[in-house]
Amino acid sequence: MTFHKTSLTARRHHFFGDADGPFFVPGESPYQMLKDDGHLSLQNVADQCGLSLGGVKKICSVLRQYGLIERIGSKKDGYWIAK
Fold it and tell me: Is the pTM higher than 0.85?
């Protein structure tokens, strides 16, 4: 998957919650929430961020592609590691 530079910048703002970016998401970003508590479910992250579950899954998919998060274990008993 390739992204243009402007696309990467926009995505970085959205994923990490940079307040100066045009895609700022109020509250914590999904990345920060998983970094703080890797045992959260994606549904819990979505509820707390005010995003849809599908949106959080998409964000996590890209974060995994960038190597910033990793899932250890099963969907039910596993946890997230944010790097």
Answer: no
